[in-house]
Amino acid sequence: MHGGEKRCPIHAQSALELTHAHHWRKLVCPLVHPHSMSSSAPHSLQALSDFFRGTHRRITHAVFDFDGTLSWLRHGWPEMMLETFAPYLPPGQDIQDTSVRKRLLNLVLALNGKPTILQMGAFEQYALSFGTITPEPEALRAAFQACLDAHIQARSLEIQTAAVGKDAYVVAGARELLEFLRSRGVRLYVLSSTIQHRVREESELLGLSAFFEGRIFGSPSNPAGFTKRAVFEGILREEGVQGSQLLALGDGPVEIADAKALGGLAIAVCTDEDVNGSGVSDPFKQEQLLAAGADVAIPDFTRAMELISPLLGA
Predict the structure, then answer these.
(1) Does residue 216 share a domain with residue 127?
(2) Domain identity same for 197 and 274
(3) Mean pLDDT across the chain
(4) In 3-state terms, what secondary structure has residue 266?
(5) Is there a single domain that holds both residue 190 and residue 279?
(6) Which residue range(s) make up the domain with 268?
(7) Which helix (H) or strand (E) holds 246?
(8) I want to staple 266 with a disulfide (CB 3.0 to 4.6 A). Which of 65, 209, 231, 256 is the partner?
(9) How far apart are the C-alpha atoms of 253 and 78, rounded to whole Å?
């Protein structure tokens, strides 16, 4: 490890080795509308397409989050973050305890889409509420980032050496959806809280950059003051379009809530952190993203073209 880092909680995991040390509880729920959550059965694709058709919207601009929405290079990051926190849990708490894991997962996923330092600060406050002192948030962030970077480097090397194809680390169905939207004249954007140069490098590695024609936005090196809301507003202002013409797709509550506040539609991408294209929605993401205002929740993009077609006049 670099610097004074002692450990990376999880060995760098590849697309060929998909077993985590701790599996998340999962829910097979392919397509969900918020109002169906009182029922055990998800809505059908036809019902959700009809919902979008009933909005009478015509989408002209689509904004995608990057990590966990288009890119699967960082899959497993919540587990890595929890393992970073594990040595500093209050006495009597164990990272493998179901209730502790649920509290911490809710804590980190609630801030998904914001700078990582905020998640570290939230954990510091969580520990302090039990009277436990942790390392400074920046030290926690550096430990987590070192572990995450080791995974990204190993996965990137797989692509660079052709051990796996690029789509092994592109969320299932994403490339086909981007091609479809581009063919229908929709203007495409990436908006990520990851440092901008990393987003652009990884987008190029995955062969996705051409879809966006330079419209790839990430946070600056110093993320203080960076908000996705400001970028959303800038897009609408510069393009001269209304929020009603906007579609946001992401796995974090930030982009979902921001798009809805601006009058747009939002699709929650509840990506499985274990198996790309499993058709399994992560239940923690699903719960939080629907609570943030998502119109529909999906596990990936394998059926997204059919779902979104009504928003394109189809």
Answers:
(1) no
(2) yes
(3) 86
(4) strand
(5) yes
(6) 34-72+170-312
(7) strand 246-250
(8) 256
(9) 15
94 and 40 within one domain: no
DSSP 3-state assignment of 187? Answer: strand
Alpha-carbon torsion (136, 139, 143, 145), positive or negative:
positive
Does the residue 3 lie in any domain?
no
Over residues 113-136, the pLDDT tens digits come to 888 999 999 999 999 999 999 999
Q: Which pLDDT belongs to residue 44?
A: 62
**Paired residues of 296 in beta bridges:** 267
254 shares a domain with 111: no
Q: Are the CB atoms for 137 and 124 separated by under 8 Å? A: yes
- Residue 294 buriedness (CB in 10 A; 0-12 / 13-18 / 19+): buried
Predicted confidence at residue 189, as pLDDT, reads 98
Residue 112 corresponds to which tokens in the numbers above?
Answer: 């998904």
Please, where are the H alpha helices in the chain?
45-54, 77-85, 98-110, 116-128, 137-160, 174-183, 196-205, 228-239, 253-261, 283-291, 304-308
238 to 59, 167, 212, 234, 250: CA distances (angstroms): 16, 32, 16, 6, 22
> Which residues are 264's β-sheet partners?
none
Going from the C-alpha of 265 to that of each of 55, 207, 245, 253, 291, the distances in angstroms are 9, 27, 8, 13, 14
Buried b (16+ CB within 10 A) or exposed e, 20-41: eeeebebbebbbbbbebeeeee
Whole-number Å distance between alpha carbons of 66 and 218: 9
